[in-house]
Amino acid sequence: MDTTATAERVVLGEGRSSRHALFADTHHPCLGSECALPYSADRGTKSVNRQALDELKQQIPLLDYLQAQDWQPVRPLSGGRWMGLCPLHADRKPSFLVDPSKNLFYCYGCGRGGDVIRFAEIYHDVKFPQALALLRQWRGLAPLLQQATDFYRMQLHRHAEAVAYLLQRGVRSPELIEHMRIGYAPGGGCLRAWLMQSGYPLSALSQAGLVTSLGYDAYVHRIVFPLEGNLYGRSISAAAPPHRFLPSPKGGLYAWELARRYPEVILVEGLLDYAVLWQAGFHNVCCTMGTHLNSRQFQQLCDGPRTVYLSFDADANGSGQQASQQLAHRLGVHGILTRHIVLPAGHDPNSFFVQGGDAGQFQSLLEAAQP
Length: 371
Ligand SMILES: [Zn+2]
Description:
This protein is of the alpha+beta class and 371 residues long. Helix content is 39%, strand content 13%. It has helices at 4-9, 50-59, 62-68, 116-124, 128-156, 160-168, 174-180, 190-197, 202-208, 256-259, 271-279, 295-301, 319-333, 349-354, 359-368; strands at residues 75-76, 82-84, 96-99, 104-107, 113-114, 183-185, 222-227, 230-235, 243-245, 264-268, 285-287, 307-311, 337-340. Mean pLDDT is 85; it is low at 1-38 and 40-46.
């Protein structure tokens, strides 16, 4: 792989250690950070199977991986390169350069750069071996989840019960259904049949959690929302547990790449809360998918100065309020301002809109929100 051209354009690597030569064939010579080596864990000395690494990088184009994490190119440059907002730091104007032909990135804001492995290390805040494992898992899972998502989306309008459920939960606009890529899992083995016809072995389906150990479709009568590296299934029947995820991690905050552009973000607990707010015109919303934030979700909220409007469910037992208070405290320690949105008793954002609340009324609640 020849990186000379990029190296000339991104001039930041002068006077670096000669150890760079070791990586010159596969790595951006100007990897940006002060660290002289491209990866965190191996320090360039242990025997890494270079051929396997090169293969992995070829199989996972950087741009595909970035886009799967909701990164969007904003401005085209010469040579097929792109600029966009940096997913690694709080970026207000596009400073993140991606060169798809070289599979390299560089950020003029935070000064970091490298290949898809380096990106995964920084983005997921993991060491080199975990970054490799995540990428390998993603490589195997991504096409399968994409196929499953496509299948579920085709089913949505073929099943009246799914559309009726969405209407009942206030989801009406075709733009919203498109934006969230909402689908429906009818169950009954149809996903399994579809994917096996597409050439996936049953073992891959059960490993991904799409099919149970007995060979049935895992999601039955569920509205399906694709996440990064996972699928959330909301049961439309009161008889089944309401929430299900595939066994892989639930990922970062839902819609974070869109929400993070705003100085004020609204944080909600459920995807149906997200849906009605988005539909009402609030696009600075992101979703935790539960009251517990994983470390990545927490880090995302802390990646720059902002105010977070918390709108967790006001449960009768007070657990939502408690989670909200604790989160506000933790965010405050990191310098993030928080406000608590107080909904009418017993409501969450979804039920607020479903029962007639409108954008103007919610805006008033936002303005009335207290620290
Ligand atoms: Zn950056």
